[in-house]
Design brief:
The chain has about 250 residues and is of the alpha/beta class. The protein has one domain (about 5-245): Rossmann fold (3-Layer(aba) Sandwich), CATH 3.40.50.720. It is built from 9 helices and 7 strands; from the N terminus they run E-H-E-H-E-H-E-H-E-H-H-E-H-H-H-E. The chain has helices at about 15-25, 35-50, 65-75, 100-125, 145-150, 155-175, 195, 205, 220-230, and strands spanning about 5, 30-35, 55-60, 85, 135-145, 180-185, 240-245. A 7-stranded parallel beta sheet has the order 3-2-1-4-5-6-7, with helices on both faces. The chain is globular and about 50 Å long. It starts with a strand and ends with a strand.
Length: about 250
């Protein structure tokens, strides 16, 4: 049976590197995207050019009905799901807590918490031996901000990632006897476009030299950790986290 993987937010950054690396290792990959169809199609084209199997499916993970449609599309186009990477995430412009309104908190938590929660639900319904599935693996892409708090910049984002860590632990223990492993990767200061969304595109260049390894990370370095946790090499690892943060 082929390994079938959904990567949410798979068109750019960590998600795109994860999709490409997974395809190189034999996964049939669904590259999920919200708005940037061109970027997702580019990842799919690169995978197919290398002899792999991939499809792009648009869906906003913050919207339950779109998540359901995403998983149904994968059922129809790729076959039984065996792996999920909850990678899609957002942040907003750097701000202190006193400047953050409820609407912003709702937006951040809708994508960063509700999205992974509903995606995980759909994955469990397909992969759990309790439901007749063959098992599988889920990796949630978190952040070191979950433990550091991101003061003065993104406390709402950090809080959402802390909630994602709690989901990771609780779900892992809930489905451990049903053939599903659930783990997390906490990314550090990584060269992705998310920093531009926060209003500081050069944030990695600013902070990288202050880290113990004295540099920012590359998305492929996070992708490698994700793929290890998905693989059989991590067969006895669940409710676990790998920090890919240069010692931060």
């Amino acid at each position: 049976m082929d390994n079938v993987l959904i990567v949410t937010g798979g068109g750019r950054g960590i998600g795109a590197e994860t999709a490409r690396l997974a395809a190189a290792r034999g996964y049939a990959v669904c590259v999920n995207y919200r708005n940037n169809r061109e970027a997702a199609n580019g990842v799919v084209a690169a995978i197919r050019a290398g002899g792999g199997t991939a499809v792009a499916v648009g869906a906003d993970v913050a919207v339950e009905s779109e998540v359901v449609r995403l998983f149904e599309a994968v059922d129809a186009q790729l076959g039984p799901l065996t792996a999920l990477v909850n990678n899609a995430g957002i942040l907003e412009t750097q701000a202190r807590v006193e400047q953050i309104d409820a609407a912003r908190v709702d937006r951040v938590f809708a994508t960063n918490v509700r999205g992974p929660f509903i995606c995980a639900r759909e994955a469990v319904r397909r992969m759990s031996t309790r439901h007749g599935g063959a098992g599988g693996a889920i990796v949630n892409v978190s952040s070191r901000a979950a433990q550091l708090g991101a003061p003065g910049e993104y406390v709402d984002y950090a809080a959402s990632k802390a909630a994602l860590d709690a989901l990771t632990i609780g779900l892992a223990r809930e489905v451990a006897a049903e053939g599903i492993r659930v783990n997390g990767v906490r990314a550090g200061i990584i060269y992705t476009e998310i920093h531009a969304a926060g209003g500081e595109p050069d944030r990695v260049d600013r902070l990288g030299p202050t880290l113990p390894m004295q540099r920012g990370g590359d998305p492929i370095e996070v992708a490698r950790a994700i793929l290890w946790l998905l693989s059989d090499e991590a067969s006895y690892s669940t409710a676990s986290f790998i920090d890919v943060a240069g010692g931060r």
